[in-house]
Amino acid sequence: MTATPLPSALRTPVDVLWNYHDMHHDPRPTDIGIGLGSHDLSVATCTATLYHRRMFPRIVFTGANAPTTIATFPRGEAVHYREHALTLNVPDTAILVEPTARNTGENITRTRELLTAHGITPRSVTLISRPYQQRRAYATCRKLWPDVDVLCASQPMSLDDYMASIGDTDRVVSMLVGDTQRIWLYAERGYAIPQPVPDHVRDAYDDLVAAGYTGRLIT
Fold first, then answer.
1. Each residue of 10-41: b (16+ CB within 10 Å) or e?
2. pLDDT tens digit string along 126-157?
3. 98-to-7, 18, 142 alpha-carbon distances in Å
4. Distance (Å) of CA 1 to CA 160, 167, 173
5. Distance of CA 107 to the CA centre of its chain
6. DSSP letter (8 states) at residue 7
7. Nearest of 15, 7, 1, 13 to residue 158 by alpha carbon
8. Helix (H) or strand (E) holding 177
9. Which of 49, 54, 145, 203 is deepest in the core (most CB within 10 A)?
10. Spatial distance between the Cα atoms of 200 and 215, rounded to a whole number of angstroms
11. What is the pTM (predicted TM-score) of this model?
């Protein structure tokens, strides 16, 4: 896929938000890998890679559908993630599927309920998500599952490679802006723990909102 080039005047603020949402966690072994459903199949690819590196012995793929994913994943995000992982030689016995969650909070709470039903009480988890979802996923998990140690991971790729893989620059930038707003908004609403938002991140966010990337904002 070919994405429309990013306007040069917006390169710096987009880079700022891209780097902000990356938690820069070094992978290490945890009890469970949790692949968070989305439009991005690279989440399942990254989960399979980490599984083969023995970063966790079990996987939960979690996610139903959203308006942006139903055409691509008609049987549900988690179901398609599982099918993709099987093609990458992850054994079916290592995978649990949670097919009902429709947002990040439900990804966390329903995964926890599923694991409890299987007699599994993890002390540590790796959340695998889109690159720009890491910080929000981390803050949500720390709020809803405070007694578990949380690491974040995404498929390693540059911003340019990611935009090319999605094939829609405007969509990626709008999602970056929307996830940035959710960092403070969800903390204010009690959905997530507060995260630091440095001035240069706020400035980058304001620049991109002013440039019209408002399609994923919550009003």
1. beebbebbbebbebeeeeeebbbbbbbbbbbb
2. 999 999 999 999 999 999 999 999 999 999 99
3. 39, 28, 20
4. 12, 5, 17
5. 10
6. P
7. 15
8. helix 169-188
9. 49
10. 22
11. 0.94
Pair 125, 32: CB distance under 8 Å = yes
Q: Supply the CATH classification number for the domain 25-153.
A: 3.40.50.620
d(CA 106, CA 112): 9
- Amino acid identity of residue 169, one-letter, is T
Other C-beta atoms closer than 10 Å to the C-beta of 191 total 17
Q: Where are the domains of the chain?
A: 8-20+158-210, 25-153
CA distance 65 to 37: 8
> Over the stretch 52-90, which tens digit does the pLDDT of each residue have?
999 999 999 999 988 878 888 999 999 999 999 999 999
Residue entry with tokens 């490679």: 161
Q: How many CB atoms lie within 10 A of CB 92?
A: 9
Q: How far apart are CA 118 and CA 121, in angstroms?
A: 9
Q: What angle do CA 84, 90, 96 make, to 5 degrees?
A: 80
Q: Tell me the two tokens of residue 88.
A: 């990458």
Residue 80, C-beta contacts closer than 8 angstroms, at least 6 positions apart: 41, 44, 72, 73
Contact 191, 107 (CB under 8 A): no
CA–CA dist 80, 202 (Å, integer): 36
Task: Report in angstroms the alpha-carbon separations of 61 from 55, 113, 218.
Answer: 16, 13, 26
